[in-house]
Amino acid sequence: MRNAQRPTDLIGQTDMIRVRSLSELTGCDIWLKLESQNPGGSIKDRAAYQIIKDALDSGELEPGMTVVEGTAGNTGIGLALVARSFGLNMLAVMPNDQSPEKERMIRLHGAKCQTVDPVPFRNENHFYHTAQRLAEGRDDFWWANQFENTSNARAHYLGTGPEIWQQTEGAVDILVSVAGTGGTIAGTSMYLKERNDDVQVWLTDPDGSGIYSYLQTGDYVANGGSFTEGIGIMRLVENFKQARIDAAVNLPDQDLYALSRYVRDHDGIVLGSSSALNLAGALQAAAVHGPGKTIVTFACDLGERSASKLYNETYLRERGIELAAEPAKELVARYRENGERVWRAAK
Ligand SMILES: Cc1ncc(COP(=O)(O)O)c(C=O)c1O
């Protein structure tokens, strides 16, 4: 229990829960670090706090100014709450295909939110370029730039990594994470590998993202698409560059859908889509390394933020998801045979 002076004092120090059903199925201890407990409901609060704190400390950002950021939503929520508690304003630029749950929350925090059409990165109207342009248009605007600003990864090096080390009493064998900016996997992997170089770091990539192919071939190539939000990317950014990754796997929405229902029904845990993909990655890692391993992954945000997609049957049918979920036991058996789909770093 903590008594705080500001919401930002409550960022980090999140609990972990052992996912009993999947731990029993795999013989590994699979832990979820509940980043949904952060005051803004996601792991991005950590990056938001560090980005603003570092910029205030360096004098780049001053009270009264407006923080501008392009975001899939969670970073916008985190920045909005941190900005307010430091006397700053917030303007988020968000693609209009992200869940309305997140856009509403940004506005509830009193921030401005401008939506743009989702377009490829090379298009000047991409949310990233729009945010940059807006920020550069005024002296009292400041661009947070979560992709290239490495205060993002630093948040996880200073907070998330040490917390996992402490919570597992140094027994963590495998870290599994999705990546958007790569801040989480970069900062956490750097810290854990400094403590124990044998910790294995697994990236889970959704369809429609090029990270898995980048690790395999050096080129960003994507197949298909995904309804996950905030993860997957088609270019190399400064935060991701710092990640120390041993293995990567690309997994489809169908698998995260199956796991979201399994842990909801067996463990009472309602996950967001990137978090369910994290658990799918944890199962794949358990199938390769287990049994007996301690695996840590993240509940990146509140499950409610995926209500309109992952928990909406009409939407799922439109996306071609088979609603009769594959039992987790069969998923594990399939992942045991999936070995060749896993990319492994050269030793
Ligand atoms: C729901 C969700 N999961 C995961 C991530 C990825 O985190 P990172 O940017 O640290 O790679 C994000 C990033 O925005 C997110 O919104």
From TrEMBL:
Its EC number is 2.5.1.47. The keyword Chaperone does not apply. Pathway: Amino-acid biosynthesis; L-cysteine biosynthesis; L-cysteine from L-serine: step 2/2. Residues 8-301 form the Tryptophan synthase beta chain-like PALP domain. GO terms for molecular function: cysteine synthase activity; pyridoxal phosphate binding. Keywords: Amino-acid biosynthesis, Pyridoxal phosphate, Transferase, Transit peptide. InterPro entries: Cys_Synth/Cystath_Beta-Synth, P-phosphate_BS, Ser/Thr_deHydtase_PyrdxlP-BS, TrpB-like_PALP, TrpB-like_PALP_sf. One of its GO terms (biological process) is cysteine biosynthetic process from serine. Its cofactor is pyridoxal 5'-phosphate. It catalyses: O-acetyl-L-serine + hydrogen sulfide = L-cysteine + acetate. Pfam families: PALP. It comes from the Bacteria. PROSITE patterns: CYS_SYNTHASE, DEHYDRATASE_SER_THR. This is cysteine synthase.
